[in-house]
Design brief:
The protein has about 325 residues and is an alpha/beta fold. It has two domains: about 20-140 and about 275-300, Rossmann fold (3-Layer(aba) Sandwich); about 145-275, 3-Layer(aba) Sandwich (Rossmann fold). Helix content is about 40%, strand content about 20%. The protein has eleven helices and twelve strands. The chain has helices at about 45-60, 75-90, 105-115, 125-130, 145-155, 175-190, 205-220, 230-240, 260-265, 275-295, 310-315, and strands at about 30-40, 65-70, 95, 115-120, 140, 165-170, 195-200, 220-225, 250, 270-275, 300-305, 305-310. A six-stranded parallel beta sheet has the order 2-1-3-4-5-11, sandwiched between helices. A four-stranded parallel beta sheet has the order 7-6-8-9, with helices on both faces. The two termini are about 35 Å apart.
């Protein structure tokens, strides 16, 4: 089955989640695939959903889609609950962007035990926990460390050895957060730039704003803030503006959401990383369909990351 990798987002009514007790119908003629995301308040995951629903509309004869997300990035219990609902509804596949790399492994194991194909996207499940449970769940997604390193290297070109920078991390228990932090550290170490603070802002704009505001007071010599996603970059930019330091402190992000593109053009964000959020779920869905068709578990697949700078937004 050949599927187009690039489709414009469009509107599509999502399947309604029904209580497990109502699901007494026989297995459908075409597979039902559940897409389980993190916070839909984050533009990145809304973009992911739009890409998935556009893809399903173009391939409506081939599969049905049930898409859902949580209220925020830390709502692990709700994400587990959604997966449990999908198990009860006997979907054929679950494509999941886990909020936590370890905490979601047990429910994914229960899904596999129920005969459901599970594909991991966006944030990789912990390899050690998977190995302990003798689980094989394929990961489809970017090399976050490489992407963050590219952004860090772009920043390093604007700084000099000895300059002070800070990192705003994502949720510390998420593998992608750990990898982005490591990529930033790689670039700063190679350039001889000092990381004077590294704190979690839990992927959230409001928290990033608070953390960044405090950093600007505590670290008056700060030259840049490296943010593990664009939502946190928005919070950092707002704090820098409020402190009257827009000309002094540079910001980089990760995700290339719409909200940062004007900031890139204006020079308020130096760079971000595009991991093509509109296609991540699509890649996972296509992998799930492939696994269902061939009765196999595909290998991990690395997807592309691209550095986005102000110069590219002018093209």
């Amino acid at each position: 089955m050949k599927m187009s990798p690039l489709l414009k987002p469009c509107c599509l009514a999502l399947a309604i989640l029904l209580p497990a007790s109502c699901n007494t119908a026989p297995q459908p003629a075409k597979p039902r695939i559940a897409l389980v995301m993190k916070s839909l308040a984050n533009e990145f995951f809304k973009t992911m959903q739009d890409g998935a629903t556009a893809h399903q509309q173009a391939h409506a004869a081939e599969y049905e889609l049930i898409a859902n997300g949580t209220k925020d990035e830390l709502d692990l219990s709700r994400q587990v609950e959604i997966v449990e609902q999908m198990i009860a509804q006997q979907v054929q596949a679950i494509v999941i962007a886990p909020a936590d790399s370890k905490a979601l492994v047990p429910v994914c194991q229960r899904a596999q035990a129920a005969g459901i194909v599970v594909i991991n996207i966006d944030n990789k499940l912990d390899a050690g926990v998977l190995a302990e449970r003798n689980l094989r769940i394929p990961f489809v997604g970017p090399d976050n460390r490489k992407g963050a390193r590219h952004a860090g290297e772009a920043l390093a070109q604007q700084l000099k050895p000895g300059d002070q920078v800070a990192i705003l991390e994502g949720v510390p228990t998420a593998f992608n957060a750990q990898q982005r932090k490591a990529g930033f550290e790689d670039a700063m170490k190679d350039a001889g730039i000092n990381i004077v603070s590294s704190q979690s802002a839990s992927w959230e704009t409001a928290k990033a704003n608070q953390v960044a505001a405090a950093l600007l007071v505590e670290k008056p010599e700060l030259k840049a803030i490296l943010c593990a996603n664009d939502s946190m970059a928005l919070g950092a930019v707002a704090a820098i503006r409020a402190a009257g330091k827009a000309e002094q402190i540079r910001v980089i992000g990760f995700d290339n959401i719409q909200a940062v593109r004007q900031l890139l053009k204006d020079g308020q964000v130096l760079a971000t990383v595009d991991q093509h959020g509109d296609q991540l779920a699509v890649y996972g869905i296509e992998y799930a369909l492939e696994a269902l068709k061939n009765k196999t578990s595909p290998a991990d697949r690395e997807t592309t990351v691209d550095l986005i700078t102000a110069e590219q937004t002018k093209n």
